[in-house]
Every structure is written in structure tokens, then in C-alpha cells.
Amino acid sequence: MPVIKILPHPEYCPEGVELKAAAGTSICEALLENGIQIEHACDMSCACTTCHVIVREGLQSLNAAEETEEDLLDRAWGLEPQSRLSCQAYLAQQDIVVQIPKYSINHARENH
Q1: CB under 8 Å to 66, separation ≥6 — which residues?
Q2: Is the pLDDT of residue 30 over 80?
């Protein structure tokens, strides 16, 4: 089972955390299942960018981004070449390191 290392984020996990998730699970699902309440305003339907993450290690092990995801990422705050929508990035067998950006484009945070 791959390990997801989440780098420290002042709101979601100030100390950072490591968690395990089954291959085939999206990063967003894994975070939510482990109590990390990452924003996901579109309920993981690939219609917004609030679940944007930056994959610092292990990007090549994830499924390839589809065109819809790539188009949406253009609107994400703090976009980097390793950016993914966590609802569309599915784990394989390799461990990954993820950074949750400090901000998202969601001005009114929803409580999920």
C-alpha cells in the first residue's frame, strides 16, 4: 500500500502527516478518509480547482492528467509543473509526497 506524505500546511495538517491508501484511490479521497479536510467544492467531479495539490515526489507514478484537468489547472492558485487536482490523481504502488498550496481560488470555504 503506497504512503502519501503530506508536507506541513498551517490549516490542514500543521505538523505534516504520512498516511497509507490503497492503489487506485484518489489523493483527495485518501486525504478525506484520513481526516485531512482538503477543499473539494465540486464534490470531486473535476469541475473546480479547490483540491489542487503539488506532487513533490512520485508524480510519474500517478495516472496521466486528462485534458479537462489540465484546462482547469490553468486557473489554480500557485500552479506548478507538478500540480494536479487531487480528485483526479490516482495512486499506483509508489509512495508520493504532496504539498497542499496555502491558498485556493475558493473565496467562500465550504464545510464538507
Answers
A1: 88
A2: yes
